[in-house]
Protein backbone atom coordinates (compact mmCIF):
# COMPACT_ATOMS: atom_id res chain seq x y z
CA UNK A 1 0.00 0.00 0.00
CA UNK A 2 1.25 3.46 -0.91
CA UNK A 3 -0.06 6.33 1.19
CA UNK A 4 0.25 9.97 0.21
CA UNK A 5 1.09 12.43 2.99
CA UNK A 6 -0.12 15.73 1.56
CA UNK A 7 1.36 18.48 3.73
CA UNK A 8 2.58 17.65 7.25
CA UNK A 9 3.75 20.49 9.47
CA UNK A 10 5.14 22.33 6.46
CA UNK A 11 3.86 25.81 5.60
CA UNK A 12 3.90 27.91 2.48
CA UNK A 13 7.18 29.41 3.69
CA UNK A 14 8.68 25.93 3.21
CA UNK A 15 7.22 25.56 -0.26
CA UNK A 16 4.46 27.28 -2.21
CA UNK A 17 3.36 23.79 -3.31
CA UNK A 18 2.22 22.76 0.20
CA UNK A 19 -1.61 22.52 0.35
CA UNK A 20 -3.21 24.35 3.27
CA UNK A 21 -6.91 24.99 2.64
CA UNK A 22 -9.53 22.23 2.34
CA UNK A 23 -9.88 23.05 -1.35
CA UNK A 24 -6.15 22.71 -1.94
CA UNK A 25 -6.02 19.46 0.01
CA UNK A 26 -8.88 18.08 -2.08
CA UNK A 27 -7.15 18.95 -5.36
CA UNK A 28 -3.86 17.41 -4.22
CA UNK A 29 -5.56 14.29 -2.86
CA UNK A 30 -7.52 13.67 -6.06
CA UNK A 31 -4.42 14.03 -8.23
CA UNK A 32 -2.32 11.84 -5.93
CA UNK A 33 -4.92 9.05 -5.92
CA UNK A 34 -5.16 9.23 -9.70
CA UNK A 35 -1.35 8.88 -9.77
CA UNK A 36 -1.49 5.70 -7.67
CA UNK A 37 -1.88 6.60 -3.99
CA UNK A 38 -4.17 4.22 -2.12
CA UNK A 39 -4.56 6.05 1.20
CA UNK A 40 -4.42 9.72 2.27
CA UNK A 41 -2.80 11.31 5.32
CA UNK A 42 -3.18 15.05 5.91
CA UNK A 43 -2.73 17.76 8.52
CA UNK A 44 -5.81 19.99 8.88
CA UNK A 45 -4.65 23.60 9.12
CA UNK A 46 -5.85 27.03 10.08
CA UNK A 47 -5.65 29.72 7.40
CA UNK A 48 -2.14 30.67 8.56
CA UNK A 49 -0.89 27.14 7.90
CA UNK A 50 -0.67 26.03 11.54
CA UNK A 51 -1.86 22.48 12.32
CA UNK A 52 -5.17 22.28 14.14
CA UNK A 53 -7.29 19.63 15.87
CA UNK A 54 -10.32 21.90 16.18
CA UNK A 55 -13.47 20.05 15.04
CA UNK A 56 -14.38 22.65 12.39
CA UNK A 57 -10.93 22.57 10.82
CA UNK A 58 -10.69 18.77 10.88
CA UNK A 59 -14.21 18.37 9.55
CA UNK A 60 -13.73 20.75 6.64
CA UNK A 61 -10.45 19.16 5.58
CA UNK A 62 -11.66 15.56 5.80
CA UNK A 63 -14.98 16.32 4.11
CA UNK A 64 -13.31 18.14 1.22
CA UNK A 65 -10.95 15.25 0.52
CA UNK A 66 -13.60 12.57 0.93
CA UNK A 67 -15.75 14.31 -1.65
CA UNK A 68 -13.15 13.85 -4.40
CA UNK A 69 -11.53 10.46 -3.75
CA UNK A 70 -13.06 6.99 -4.27
CA UNK A 71 -14.85 5.48 -1.29
CA UNK A 72 -12.19 2.75 -1.02
CA UNK A 73 -9.53 5.38 -0.21
CA UNK A 74 -9.17 5.95 3.52
CA UNK A 75 -8.53 9.47 4.78
CA UNK A 76 -6.50 10.11 7.93
CA UNK A 77 -5.26 13.07 9.97
CA UNK A 78 -2.57 13.86 12.52
CA UNK A 79 -2.91 14.17 16.30
CA UNK A 80 0.62 15.55 16.74
CA UNK A 81 1.44 17.17 20.06
CA UNK A 82 2.86 20.21 18.24
CA UNK A 83 -0.76 21.15 17.42
CA UNK A 84 -2.00 20.82 21.01
CA UNK A 85 0.77 20.04 23.54
CA UNK A 86 -1.47 19.08 26.48
CA UNK A 87 -2.67 15.47 25.96
CA UNK A 88 -5.89 15.93 27.92
CA UNK A 89 -6.89 18.81 25.66
CA UNK A 90 -5.97 16.77 22.57
CA UNK A 91 -8.23 13.94 23.75
CA UNK A 92 -11.01 16.43 24.48
CA UNK A 93 -10.81 17.90 20.99
CA UNK A 94 -10.87 14.45 19.39
CA UNK A 95 -13.99 13.57 21.35
CA UNK A 96 -15.61 16.74 19.95
CA UNK A 97 -14.97 15.84 16.29
CA UNK A 98 -18.21 15.53 14.33
CA UNK A 99 -16.67 14.47 11.02
CA UNK A 100 -14.54 11.43 11.74
CA UNK A 101 -11.47 10.49 9.71
CA UNK A 102 -10.89 6.82 8.94
CA UNK A 103 -7.61 6.86 10.86
CA UNK A 104 -5.30 9.19 12.75
CA UNK A 105 -1.58 9.06 13.42
CA UNK A 106 -0.51 9.09 17.06
CA UNK A 107 3.15 9.42 17.98
CA UNK A 108 3.93 7.01 20.77
CA UNK A 109 6.91 8.91 22.19
CA UNK A 110 4.64 11.87 22.97
CA UNK A 111 3.44 12.38 26.52
CA UNK A 112 -0.07 11.12 27.13
CA UNK A 113 -0.28 9.00 23.97
CA UNK A 114 -2.40 6.41 25.79
CA UNK A 115 -5.07 8.99 26.71
CA UNK A 116 -5.24 10.25 23.14
CA UNK A 117 -5.47 6.66 21.91
CA UNK A 118 -8.45 6.05 24.20
CA UNK A 119 -10.29 8.99 22.63
CA UNK A 120 -9.62 7.68 19.12
CA UNK A 121 -10.74 4.17 20.02
CA UNK A 122 -13.95 5.50 21.59
CA UNK A 123 -14.76 7.16 18.25
CA UNK A 124 -13.88 4.03 16.25
CA UNK A 125 -11.06 5.87 14.48
CA UNK A 126 -8.22 3.63 13.33
CA UNK A 127 -4.89 4.41 14.99
CA UNK A 128 -1.65 4.67 13.07
CA UNK A 129 0.77 4.13 15.94
CA UNK A 130 3.69 6.42 15.15
CA UNK A 131 7.00 4.91 16.27
CA UNK A 132 9.96 7.17 15.54
CA UNK A 133 13.56 6.04 15.34
CA UNK A 134 15.75 7.48 18.07
CA UNK A 135 12.92 7.53 20.63
CA UNK A 136 11.46 5.15 23.21
CA UNK A 137 8.28 4.93 21.13
CA UNK A 138 8.68 1.25 20.23
CA UNK A 139 9.11 0.20 23.86
CA UNK A 140 6.20 2.33 25.05
CA UNK A 141 3.91 1.11 22.29
CA UNK A 142 4.68 -2.57 22.84
CA UNK A 143 4.01 -2.12 26.58
CA UNK A 144 0.53 -0.66 25.94
CA UNK A 145 -2.10 -3.34 26.73
CA UNK A 146 -4.25 -2.35 23.76
CA UNK A 147 -1.48 -2.29 21.16
CA UNK A 148 -3.23 -5.04 19.21
CA UNK A 149 -6.17 -2.72 18.54
CA UNK A 150 -4.38 -0.24 16.29
CA UNK A 151 -4.81 -0.17 12.52
CA UNK A 152 -1.09 -0.18 11.74
CA UNK A 153 2.32 0.81 13.01
CA UNK A 154 3.66 3.93 11.34
CA UNK A 155 7.43 3.45 11.58
CA UNK A 156 9.13 6.78 10.92
CA UNK A 157 12.86 6.99 10.26
CA UNK A 158 14.03 10.40 11.46
CA UNK A 159 17.57 9.83 10.19
CA UNK A 160 17.75 12.13 7.15
CA UNK A 161 21.22 11.05 6.02
CA UNK A 162 20.76 9.01 2.83
CA UNK A 163 23.96 7.10 3.65
CA UNK A 164 22.78 5.83 7.05
CA UNK A 165 18.98 5.98 6.75
CA UNK A 166 18.75 2.43 5.38
CA UNK A 167 20.54 0.96 8.39
CA UNK A 168 18.41 3.07 10.73
CA UNK A 169 15.26 1.83 9.00
CA UNK A 170 16.34 -1.79 9.28
CA UNK A 171 17.19 -1.33 12.95
CA UNK A 172 13.77 0.24 13.63
CA UNK A 173 11.95 -2.66 11.97
CA UNK A 174 14.08 -5.07 13.99
CA UNK A 175 13.29 -3.17 17.20
CA UNK A 176 9.58 -3.60 16.54
CA UNK A 177 10.22 -7.34 16.44
CA UNK A 178 9.46 -10.22 14.14
CA UNK A 179 5.98 -10.41 15.63
CA UNK A 180 4.70 -6.87 16.30
CA UNK A 181 1.33 -6.48 18.04
CA UNK A 182 -0.31 -5.83 14.65
CA UNK A 183 0.74 -7.28 11.27
CA UNK A 184 0.49 -4.02 9.32
CA UNK A 185 3.64 -1.91 9.24
CA UNK A 186 4.12 1.24 7.18
CA UNK A 187 7.77 2.30 6.96
CA UNK A 188 8.80 5.75 5.76
CA UNK A 189 11.56 8.34 5.98
CA UNK A 190 11.84 12.09 5.67
CA UNK A 191 13.72 14.77 3.75
CA UNK A 192 17.03 13.49 2.34
CA UNK A 193 16.40 10.03 3.79
CA UNK A 194 12.88 9.63 2.37
CA UNK A 195 13.73 7.88 -0.90
CA UNK A 196 16.32 5.65 0.74
CA UNK A 197 13.76 4.42 3.28
CA UNK A 198 11.08 4.00 0.62
CA UNK A 199 13.43 1.60 -1.18
CA UNK A 200 14.04 -0.29 2.06
CA UNK A 201 10.28 -0.62 2.56
CA UNK A 202 9.90 -1.83 -1.02
CA UNK A 203 12.64 -4.40 -0.55
CA UNK A 204 10.99 -5.70 2.62
CA UNK A 205 7.54 -5.76 1.03
CA UNK A 206 6.17 -3.23 3.56
CA UNK A 207 3.60 -0.50 3.11
CA UNK A 208 5.12 2.95 2.70
CA UNK A 209 4.23 6.55 1.95
CA UNK A 210 5.44 9.62 0.08
CA UNK A 211 4.30 13.22 -0.22
CA UNK A 212 5.22 16.82 0.48
CA UNK A 213 5.10 16.13 4.21
CA UNK A 214 8.08 13.81 3.90
CA UNK A 215 10.09 15.24 1.02
CA UNK A 216 10.01 18.12 -1.47
CA UNK A 217 12.39 16.62 -4.02
CA UNK A 218 12.69 13.63 -6.33
CA UNK A 219 15.43 10.98 -6.06
CA UNK A 220 17.64 12.99 -8.44
CA UNK A 221 17.38 16.06 -6.21
CA UNK A 222 15.11 18.06 -8.50
CA UNK A 223 11.97 19.70 -7.12
CA UNK A 224 8.74 17.72 -7.17
CA UNK A 225 5.90 19.52 -8.91
CA UNK A 226 3.30 18.32 -6.43
CA UNK A 227 2.18 15.29 -4.42
CA UNK A 228 1.06 13.45 -7.54
CA UNK A 229 4.55 13.82 -9.03
CA UNK A 230 6.06 12.21 -5.93
CA UNK A 231 3.50 9.40 -6.04
CA UNK A 232 4.18 8.61 -9.70
CA UNK A 233 7.92 8.32 -9.07
CA UNK A 234 7.33 6.25 -5.91
CA UNK A 235 5.09 3.86 -7.85
CA UNK A 236 7.88 3.27 -10.35
CA UNK A 237 10.32 2.49 -7.53
CA UNK A 238 7.85 0.09 -5.90
CA UNK A 239 7.04 -1.62 -9.21
CA UNK A 240 10.74 -2.14 -9.94
CA UNK A 241 11.25 -3.83 -6.55
CA UNK A 242 8.14 -5.96 -7.05
CA UNK A 243 9.55 -7.28 -10.33
CA UNK A 244 12.87 -8.11 -8.64
CA UNK A 245 11.11 -10.07 -5.89
CA UNK A 246 8.92 -12.04 -8.29
Number of domains: 1
Mean pLDDT: 95
Rg over C-alpha atoms, rounded to the nearest angstrom:
17 Å
- At the fold tier of CATH, the topology name is TIM Barrel
CATH class: Alpha Beta
Give helix % range.
Answer: 25-40%
Order of helices and strands: EHEHEHEHEHEHEHEH
Spatial strand arrangement across the major sheet? 7-6-5-4-3-2-1-8
Strand content: 15-25%
* The CATH architecture: Alpha-Beta Barrel
- The separation of the N and C termini measures 17 Å
User: Oligomeric form of this entry?
Assistant: single chain
CATH superfamily: Aldolase class I
Could you describe the largest sheet, including whether it forms a barrel? Answer: 8 strands, parallel
Q: What structural category do the secondary elements indicate?
A: alpha/beta
Apparent shape: globular
DSSP strand count = 8
Question: What would you say this structure looks like, in words?
Answer:
With 246 residues, the chain is α/β, with parallel strands linked by helices. It has helices spanning 22-35, 55-66, 87-95, 113-123, 137-143, 165-176, 194-204, 227-245; strands spanning 2-5, 39-42, 74-78, 103-107, 126-132, 152-156, 185-188, 208-210. It has an eight-stranded parallel beta sheet. Strand 3, helix 3 (87-95) and strand 4 (103-107) form a beta-alpha-beta unit. The two termini are 17 Å apart.
Provide a brief overview of the structure:
The protein is built from 8 helices and 8 strands, in the order βαβαβαβαβαβαβαβα. It is α/β, with parallel strands linked by helices. The protein is globular, with a radius of gyration of 17 Å.
Amino acid sequence: MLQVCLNGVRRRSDSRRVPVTPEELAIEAARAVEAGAQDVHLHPKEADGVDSLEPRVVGEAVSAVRAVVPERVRVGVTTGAWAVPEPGRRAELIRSWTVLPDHASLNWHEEGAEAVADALLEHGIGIEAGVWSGTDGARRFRAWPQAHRVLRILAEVTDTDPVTAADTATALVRELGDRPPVPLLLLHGEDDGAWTVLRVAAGLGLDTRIGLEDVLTLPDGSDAQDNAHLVRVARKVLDEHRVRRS
